[in-house]
# Entry
Amino acid sequence: MHSSSSSSSIVVVVVVVVGVVVVVIAVVAVVVVVVVVVEVVALTVSVAIVVAIEVAVVAVVAVVAVVAAAVAAVVVAAVVVAAVIVAVVVGGGVVDAVVIKVVVLQK
# Structure
C-alpha cells in the first residue's frame, strides 16, 4: 500500500512539474512574440519618422532654393534697373542703357 501511495505522489509531482514547465514555456513564448512585435513596430515607426524627417528636410531645402532663386532674380532685376538708370543719367542716352542692360544680363 505504501509503495502504491508513493508512486501516486511521484506521478502527481511529475504532472505538476510538467504543467509548470509548459506554462513557463508558454509565457516565455508570449514574451518573445511580444518583444519581437514591439521591436518590429518600433523599427517601422522609427523608419517612418526618419523618412518623414528626410521628406521635411528636402521640402525645406526646396523652399529655401525657390526663395533663393526668387531673391536672386529680384537682385538681378534691381541691378539691371539700377544700371539702366545710371546709364541714362550719366551717359544721357538710351544706347548706353541698352548696352549696360545686356552686359548685366549676360553675367
Notes: The chain has two helices and no strands. The radius of gyration is 41 Å.
